[in-house]
Amino acid sequence: MGGYEAEQLRCVRQHVEDDNMGELAVALVRIGALNNTWHGDGATMLELVRALPQDSRLRLANAWVARHRSGSDSERIRGIVLTLVGIVGRDLPDDLLSTERLRKLEDYSRVSSVYAAHELQGLAEAELAAGRELSGHVVAVIRRTLMTVYYGKQNLGELAARLTEPVLNPGEAWADQALGELADLDGPWRALLEHALTATAARPSAAWERTGRELIAAIGAEAVRTTVLPWLALAGRPRTLELVRGRHEADINQACDPYNANALRGLAWLLALLPPHPETARALGALTGTMLRKVPGVGPRSPKIANASVTALARIEGEAALAELARLATRVTYKGTVKLIDAALETRAAALGLSRDEIEELAVPAYVLTGVGHAVHRLGESTAELTVTGSRTRLTWLNAAGKRLVAPPAAVKRDHPDELKELKAAAKDIDKMLSAQTERLDRQFLARRTWTYKAWRERCLDHPLVGTLARRLLWTVDGTACGFADGELRGPTDDPVSDGSAVTLWHPVGREAGEVVAWRDWLERHGITQPFKQAHREVYPLTDAERTTGTYSNRFAGHILRQHQFHSLAAVRGWTNKLRLCVDDSYTPAYRELPQWGLRAEYWIEGEGEGWGPEETTESGSYLRLRTDQVRFYPIDAPHNHAHAGGGPYEMWLRDGQDRVEALPLTDIPDLVLSEVLRDVDLFVGVASIGNDPTWQDGGPGGRFREYWTSYGFGELNQSAETRRDLLTRLVPRLAIADRCVMDGRFLHVRGDLHTYKIHLGSGNILRTPNDQYVCIVPKAGGGPDTGYLPFEGDGLLSVILSKAMMLARDAEITDPTIVSQL
Questions:
Q1: How much is the pLDDT for 355?
Q2: CA-CA distances (angstroms) from residue 775 to 19, 227, 764?
């Protein structure tokens, strides 16, 4: 016992022995204010006053009541007084300060958890002693506090164990729905939810599953599925009771209630014990995505629930669950969940004697499609047509008379509700899977994937869903380049291409310029929009500067990137990266492992900022911006480099007798690998640079980025912008505003009725006459006017530039006041 605490305890004991309740009342308030919470010796002090005779406690409580009602103390001191009254006055004849206590408990019910657990417990115990039940939201904060508090855990735990109602914490949409339905459900349902709440381990035990099966059998598997799935669909919705957020607290209203999180994990495990059903797999896949969505200051909403959903999917047999795992494999970037998905897919692949690539391809279902990108389903006298166009699915209807309708006829809603529900769900599933399969196919260049011709036809070209993507890509069949048009494979001059034995994706690296141009012409001639850049894909050959530096590229050094946007892009493209915190710590570079090539690519980055603050860091302390440096390549098993979060040289960390490994000469890196890695880095810069943000004209904090913003926003074009310029040179003459547009170097010049404008092809930033005055136009979400045919998807800036050009060509018709004021 320290001297200070010992003196406090000695003082309390003395006042108790002297029966000096007035001095004791003052002393305990002072001690509570100094110590902030009652633990250790503080708990001993409270035990002393609880053991006082009733008349002594009454005098003590009345002293505090008088002080509380005087109103002379701060709100914090009044809270301490109120708590002390509750602690000592539980069995007193008068229910002292009950109104004030209820008000304080109401305040507590609107926070995530309470640091001073003894205070919360004291108020709650006093309320129970008065014969009143605690509200569900007060019970909720007690449970949440128990999961986070350090001091007073045992006593608070004893209280929480007595609070069995409500079975879930209210305040979340899914829990409120479950609690509302529970009143009308039979007895086993409560036992099922209570069992779900015991899912506190990473995986269910055999005993846990055995109890779960018994409860499911008592209710009925179908009843469990149809009742639980709608609950899961509400998980992640905004809280129904918004909690008060502390000044330095993360966005708790977007996070999961930690008590209810165990229940959601348990429900996911229970779904794996039911007979396989497409809706179950769909719900678990959606829950995984919802729980991995980032919450500011928190990170993923609840990885443990996401992991439970993946664990459940891995246990469910059938095509639907496997399809969800394959889709998640292309979308999920959170490491712990990625490992679970990979393990599940590897296990399935091994069981079937297939490779990981093959299992992912076979996992893609046709859903309701009966042909490539098309389906026709007859429902009574009406016909539903489902068509995949580009990256979207469209569901249209024909009535008995053959008239085309936008919405399903009333007879279909009435007589075929289940089939209608499945069609709508399939359309949404197809949209999500199209995005996932686009990512998967785009990664096949570096995966060095080769298909047998037969497998390629079945799994790619003629697959009802994947075929909508594969038929818009270019391939090589036994080395002969081809694309799909007019029902068959054709070369660039439209000559038919015969069947073969081996198929790979076509890549422009190593191709003659004439061949690349021929394929671009072919795509335009057939009106094919590729799902990602292929014929127009940027190629990054070594520069003279890179031959001089030898082992590193400075091509993308010296940029200022928005850290969180870069972090998300890197994850999607298969790079490993950690958010840089403004702390004394070291980090590896962002890196991408290329196991098929035995290589690891590194992009050296560092936190950019001048210390902790709202203009430099998030509330959780991560830098808002990064500064970029070199790109290097190492053998995949080489030790990792590290550098301080805020900058400084990278050094290789050597452990267990490891030897230093030098960076590989860029001339030794295969052309395809070098090009694809530098293309990734170009994407990171092109998307995440502050230079392409039209609102950064002032240069950011202190104006220190003004020079960079200007040089990037109006400077020389990078490779992706060069590709954009080449394409615009072909597209602009076909636009309705072609007579008002001129391509000139780095800019698209647009002549309006009021001014002439220059749109930078690398950033989309705008200058207008006279004197190159800057015009700030922030693109609206959802895009602008129809820009006509584009040969590939995915270049959002290209669409922005075309939309701005079409707007500015008619500048006299602009009505947006923020734009008009600049013209």
A1: 87
A2: 79, 55, 11
